C-alpha cells in the first residue's frame, strides 16, 4: 500500500517537472484527456501502471493550467516603455540598491489598462527610505516585460520572476504618497527592521540579524554573502526551514513541559496534542515574519502535514509524511520545482529520513550528529555540482558548528531581542554571530579541490548512488554508489584541438565581455559592468571549467567594459593584463601582477591561433577613452574574429589605412552606435556575423536602426545578445554558432526574435 502511494505521488510530481521543462506551453485539453483515459483503463487491468500514468498526466495538466494563468498575467508588449500612471500598494520590504530603491508594487486595476498583479519597480536616486511597505502611492512609471540575461551557468532571473508571480519590471519617474495604508503584515516587518537598525547602528552583522528575524537579506554586504556561500551556510542566513522547524520543536517541547505540570489541563487535553498546536502556531508566526515567502510556506506545509499525521491515533511512516508534504507543496505551488532551494530542502530531509531508517540514531550522540551532517552533505552534493559547479568541502565542518549556534542560540536570542526595549539581546545575538563568522573565516582558509560542472543527466545515477551510500554498513551493494556518482566528476566539456578556438560573447547587458579559448589557453576581453562579476562572469567561467586566465584585456576606462574587473581578479588567477588604462587607475592597487599597455603590432601565438592587437597606435593622439580602446584580432588561418571595443569612425579609418581586411565574426564597434561602423569599415570588414552586445531596451537606443541596416546590406547576419543570450562561436574549418536562448528554450523566456 505504501509503495503504491509513493509511486502515485512520484508520478504526479514527475508530470509537474516535465511541464516545467517544456520550451513552450502546450494545449490544456490533450493531457487532461490522457489522464481520464488512463484512469478508465486502470479499472480494467494493469491498475497500478495506468494509475501512475494518470497521475503523471494529471500533474502535467495541473502545472500547465497554472502556467497558462501566470504567463497571462505578464505585461502586454503594447504597454512596454510607455509612460503609465498607476496607483497601488507597496508590498514586501523595499530594498536599497546602489542606484536607489527597489520594491514590489501591487497596482489597482482600471478598465482602461490591464496590468500584472505584481510589479517590481526601481526608483533611481533620492532617499533610500522614501517608500515603505504597506503605503499607497500614485506613480508615473515606464514598464518592461520580464527579461533577464541568459548565459552559461548563470542564474535564470526570468524563472525566478515566474516563481514569484512578478509580471513586469519598471522604473519610477515620479510618485505621490496617498492616504490610506494596507499590508499590515509588511508594516509590522518594516517597523521591526527599523528597530533593529536603530538598536545596531554600526554593527557589522546587523544585516544578518534582520535576515534571521524578518527575512530581509538586502542589508547583508556582498563580502559576507561570498563567505557564507564559500562555506555552504547560506541556508542559515534567512528564515529558513531549519530555523522554523527548530523553533517549532522548541515551542512544542516547552508547551508539553508546562502542560504536563498543570493537572487540570493535562486531564482535559493531551500534552502531546497541545505541543503539536504550539509548534504549528509558532511556525506560522515565524513564517509571517518572513512575509510568508515561498520557501517558508513549504516548511509550514510540511510541519502542518506532519502534525496532522501525528495527531491521528494511527501513526504514519516518515516517508509517507515526507511524500505528503512534497505533494501538497507542489499542488499549491507547481513552480516550486524550478527552485534549487526546494530540491535542496526536500532532498536533504528525505536523505536524512532514509539514512535515519537505515543507520543513524545508533551509538554516541556526537557520532549521530556527524553522520547526520555527512548524509545532508552527500544528498546536496550532486545538485550543488550540477547547478553551481562547486562543492564547498568545508561545508560539513562549517555547518557542524554553525547550525546549532545560529539555529538554537542566535535566532531565538534575536527574536527575543525584538521585544527587548534596551536592545541588549539583539547586541548579544549580533556579537555571537561575529564569533561564528570568525570561525567561518578560518574555514575559508582551508584548501579544497576544484570540480568540473557535470551535465544534468548525471543527477539520475548520482541520486541512485546517494541512496546506496546511505544504506546500512556491511551491505555488499552499498559501495556501488561510488560508481554511480563517478559521472559527476568527469569532464563533460568539448575539448578544442590546435588551430581551433571558441569565442563566447556573454550577455552582460549594456557592456562587453568575450571569452576566447584555444586548446590550452584562455583569454577574456572586457568584463562588463560591476554586477556582472558574480552574476555572469564567474558562473560562466565555472561552467566552461576555466580556473585561470592567461590574459585579460581591459579595452578602455568605461565601467560597462571594465566594471567587474576587481571582483573577477579576486576570484580568478590572471597571468597578464593588457590595457589602455591610466597608470593611476584604482585597479592597479588591487592587482600587482604583470600588465602591459595595448599597442598596435603586439602579437602572440597560442595553439596555432594568432592573437594580434591592432589598436591603439602609439603615434595616435586620442581625444577620448573610447578612441584609445584596445582592438583585438583572433585568426586561425581560416576565420577571423575582430573585437574593436568602442572605437569611432576616425580610429576605423586608421585601421583601414593599415590594411584591416575581412573579419568573419565582428563585435560591432560601440554596440552599434552612430559614432562607429562607417560605410568603409563595414565594406572592408564584410563580416559574416555582426554581433551587438547590448542591453534590453537600453537608454542609448543601441543598436541604431541605420547601423543594423548597413550591416544587413553587406550580407551580414545581425545577432544581438539581448535577443539571443550568450553567443558561442566554435571556429575551426567551419564556424558553428550557438545561441544560448535557442539551445536552452523555456516557456517563460522572453519573447525575443533573432534576426
TrEMBL record:
Residues 510-696 form the Metallo-beta-lactamase domain. The keyword NADP does not apply. SMART domains: Lactamase_B. It is found in: Cell membrane. InterPro entries: ComA-like_MBL, ComEC_N, Competence_ComEC/Rec2, Competence_DNA_uptake, DUF4131, Metallo-B-lactamas, RibonucZ/Hydroxyglut_hydro. It comes from the Bacteria. Its main location: membrane. The chain crosses the membrane at residues 46-65, 236-259, 271-294, 320-346, 366-388, 400-419, 451-471. It holds the Pfam family Lactamase_B. This is DNA internalization-related competence protein ComEC/Rec2. It comes from Iodobacter violaceini.
Amino acid at each position: 500500500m505504501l509503495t503504491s502511494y509513493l509511486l502515485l505521488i512520484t508520478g504526479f510530481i514527475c508530470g509537474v517537472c516535465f511541464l516545467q521543462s517544456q520550451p513552450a506551453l502546450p494545449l490544456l485539453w490533450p493531457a487532461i484527456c490522457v489522464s481520464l483515459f488512463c484512469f478508465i483503463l486502470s479499472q480494467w487491468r494493469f491498475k497500478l501502471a495506468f494509475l501512475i500514468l494518470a497521475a503523471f498526466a494529471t500533474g502535467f495538466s495541473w502545472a500547465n493550467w497554472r502556467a497558462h494563468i501566470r504567463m497571462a498575467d505578464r505585461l502586454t508588449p503594447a504597454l512596454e516603455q510607455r509612460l503609465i500612471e498607476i496607483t497601488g500598494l507597496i508590498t514586501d520590504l523595499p530594498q536599497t540598491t546602489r542606484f536607489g530603491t527597489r520594491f514590489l508594487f501591487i497596482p489597482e486595476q482600471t478598465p482602461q489598462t490591464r496590468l500584472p498583479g505584481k510589479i517590481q519597480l526601481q526608483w533611481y536616486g533620492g532617499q533610500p527610505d522614501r517608500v515603505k511597505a504597506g503605503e499607497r502611492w500614485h506613480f508615473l512609471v515606464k514598464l518592461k516585460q520580464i527579461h533577464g540575461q541568459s548565459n552559461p551557468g548563470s542564474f535564470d532571473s526570468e524563472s525566478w520572476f515566474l516563481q514569484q508571480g512578478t509580471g513586469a519590471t519598471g522604473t519610477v519617474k515620479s510618485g505621490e504618497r496617498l492616504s490610506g495604508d494596507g499590508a499590515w503584515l509588511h508594516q509590522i516587518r518594516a517597523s521591526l527592521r527599523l528597530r533593529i537598525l536603530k538598536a545596531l547602528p554600526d554593527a557589522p552583522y546587523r544585516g544578518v540579524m534582520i535576515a534571521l528575524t524578518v527575512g530581509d537579506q538586502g542589508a547583508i554586504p556582498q563580502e559576507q554573502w561570498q563567505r557564507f556561500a564559500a562555506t555552504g551556510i547560506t541556508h542559515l542566513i534567512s528564515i529558513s526551514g531549519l530555523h522554523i522547524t527548530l523553533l517549532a520543536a522548541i515551542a512544542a517541547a516547552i508547551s508539553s513541559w508546562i502542560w504536563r505540570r498543570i493537572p487540570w489541563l493535562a486531564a482535559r487535553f493531551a500534552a502531546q496534542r497541545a505541543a503539536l498546536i504550539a509548534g504549528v502556531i509558532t511556525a506560522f508566526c515565524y513564517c509571517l515574519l518572513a512575509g510568508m515567502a515561498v520557501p517558508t510556506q513549504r516548511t509550514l506545509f510540511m510541519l502542518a502535514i506532519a502534525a496532522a499525521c501525528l495527531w491521528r491515533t494511527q501513526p504514519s511512516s516518515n516517508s509517507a509524511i515526507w511524500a505528503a508534504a512534497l505533494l501538497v507543496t507542489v499542488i499549491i505551488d507547481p513552480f516550486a520545482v524550478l527552485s534549487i532551494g526546494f530540491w535542496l530542502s526536500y532532498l536533504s530531509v528525505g536523505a536524512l529520513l532514509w539514512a535515519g531508517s537505515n543507520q543513524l540514531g545508533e551509538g554516541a550522540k556526537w557520532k549521530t550528529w556527524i553522520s547526520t551532517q555527512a548524509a545532508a552533505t552527500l544528498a546536496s552534493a550532486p545538485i550543488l555540482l550540477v547547478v553551481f559547479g562547486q562543492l564547498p568541502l568545508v561545508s560539513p565542518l562549517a555547518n557542524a558548528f554553525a547550525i546549532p549556534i545560529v539555529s538554537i542560540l542566535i535566532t531565538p536570542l534575536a527574536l527575543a531581542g525584538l521585544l527587548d526595549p534596551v536592545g541588549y539581546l539583539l547586541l548579544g545575538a549580533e556579537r555571537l554571530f561575529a564569533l561564528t563568522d570568525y570561525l567561518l573565516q578560518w574555514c575559508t582558509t582551508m584548501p579544497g579541490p576544484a570540480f568540473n560542472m557535470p551535465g544534468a543527466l548525471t543527477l539520475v545515477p548520482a541520486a541512485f548512488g546517494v541512496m546506496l551510500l546511505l544504506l546500512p554498513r556491511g551491505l555488499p551493494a552499498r559501495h556501488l554508489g561510488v560508481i554511480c556518482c563517478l559521472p559527476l566528476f568527469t569532464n563533460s566539456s568539448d575539448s578544442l584541438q590546435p588551430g581551433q578556438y571558441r569565442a563566447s560573447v556573454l550577455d552582460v547587458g549594456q557592456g562587453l565581455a568575450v571569452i576566447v579559448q584555444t586548446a590550452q589557453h584562455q583569454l577574456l576581453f572586457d568584463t562588463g559592468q560591476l554586477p556582472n562579476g558574480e552574476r555572469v562572469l564567474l558562473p560562466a567561467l565555472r561552467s566552461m571549467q576555466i580556473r585561470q586566465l592567461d590574459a585579460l584585456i581591459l579595452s578602455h576606462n568605461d565601467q560597462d567594459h571594465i566594471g567587474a574587473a576587481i571582483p573577477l581578479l579576486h576570484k580568478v588567477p590572471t597571468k597578464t593584463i593588457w590595457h589602455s588604462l591610466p597608470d593611476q587607475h584604482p585597479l592597479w592597487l588591487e592587482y600587482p601582477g604583470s600588465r602591459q599597455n595595448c599597442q598596435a603590432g603586439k602579437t602572440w601565438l597560442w595553439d596555432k591561433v594568432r592573437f594580434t592587437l591592432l589598436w591603439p597606435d602609439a603615434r595616435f593622439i586620442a581625444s577620448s577613452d573610447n578612441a584609445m580602446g584596445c582592438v583585438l584580432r583572433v585568426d586561425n588561418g581560416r576565420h577571423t574574429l575582430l573585437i574593436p571595443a568602442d572605437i569611432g569612425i576616425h580610429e576605423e579609418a586608421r585601421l583601414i589605412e593599415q590594411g584591416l581586411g575581412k573579419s568573419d565574426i565582428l563585435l560591432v564597434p560601440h554596440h552599434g552606435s552612430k559614432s562607429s561602423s562607417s560605410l568603409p569599415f563595414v565594406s572592408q570588414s564584410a563580416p559574416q556575423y555582426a554581433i551587438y552586445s547590448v542591453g534590453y531596451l537600453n537608454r542609448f537606443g543601441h543598436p541604431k536602426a541605420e547601423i543594423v541596416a548597413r550591416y544587413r546590406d553587406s550580407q551580414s547576419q545581425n545577432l544581438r545578445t539581448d535577443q539571443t543570450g550568450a553567443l558561442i562561436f566554435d571556429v575551426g574549418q567551419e564556424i558553428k554558432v550557438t545561441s544560448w536562448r535557442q539551445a536552452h528554450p523555456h516557456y517563460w523566456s522572453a519573447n525575443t526574435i533573432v534576426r
